[in-house]
Amino acid sequence: MQGTLNEELALSLKGRDFLMLVDFKPEEVRYLIDLAIDLKQKQKAGEPHQLLKNKTLGMIFEKSSTRTRVSFEVGIYQLGGQGLFLSGSDLQIGRGEPIWDTAQVLSRYLDGIMIRTFEHRKVVELARGATIPVINGLTDLSHPCQALADYQTVLEHKGRLEGLKIAYIGDGNNVVHSLMMGAAKLGMHMSVATPEGYEPDANIVQQTKDNASETGASLHICRDPKEAIADADIVYTDVWASMGQEAEQKEREIAFSAYQINEDLAKYAKKDYLFMHCLPAHRGEEVSEGVIDGAHSIIFDQAENRLHAQKAIMAAIMS
Ligand code: CP
Ligand code: NVA
Q1: Which of 52, 156, 166, 224 keeps 20 to 30 A from 40, CA to CA?
Q2: Considering the entire predicted model, what is its pTM?
Q3: Which domains does the chain have, with CATH numbers?
Q4: Does 149 contact ligand 2 (Cβ within 6 A)?
Q5: 116 catalytic, yes or no?
């Protein structure tokens, strides 16, 4: 029965874009996490898993990256294919070539495109113009590859996802948007605390709540970090100023000064809480050194799982 279900899920994912977690059914999200764990085991055991032999992934970067670039490039290589790094400023797209034309042309050479850019609209347009799968490698709105890898990491550490409480404290940004949607798909309870004016996007909040009812998940948005973190199994934060917001760094440091995750605040979480951060992090700003480098932190497991989760995404949609 499980085998038939997995075959159906595998079939339903083939050829799809990976733009937002909201586009996927709860069982598809869970299937991708299970596939990531399976591919991780195969890689560690040295078992061949060349599911994308001779396929090419183009990787467009209009923003900086360490984890996303390296994990996609190594990931496609381990799957038997190759990755092509394309800097946004060197492509004709950077000089005004229409996204539609770029999408059509790249579809004649490649088997998949990963893009990291600013406006989410650009990724949607690229996917509309492309005849091959497009993967969102981070936009100002969302970072679904991150959330998938993060929930894989939680599952590995806690042995379950459903019913766990995740608290996010900080900026209502791309990372929290994807975490919210992932939590809704996976039956988790999420609390988000942000300063006034830095709340998550209202549409995403609504979509999350709509999706949560299907899985028994819940979403609570508040101001008070102590309220959000109370009895949390997972405590998550991200930078106060994301890529493209560097000019707001100083005003954000003031607005977020009461939102640092440190030893005092962490006391309100569960005793065996996990600390998570997508990285890169700023020690002494959104998180204290003691917490990020302490016994509860699983930040490097998260970073590693970007590789395995993205291999699962590529294998599912590009094969
Ligand atoms: N977390 C993450 O996406 O890291 P990079 O910006 O280094 O890719
Ligand atoms: N919110 C951060 C995430 C980096 C991976 C940013 O967009 O810069």
Answers
A1: 166
A2: 0.98
A3: 2-142+305-318 (3.40.50.1370), 144-302 (3.40.50.1370)
A4: no
A5: yes
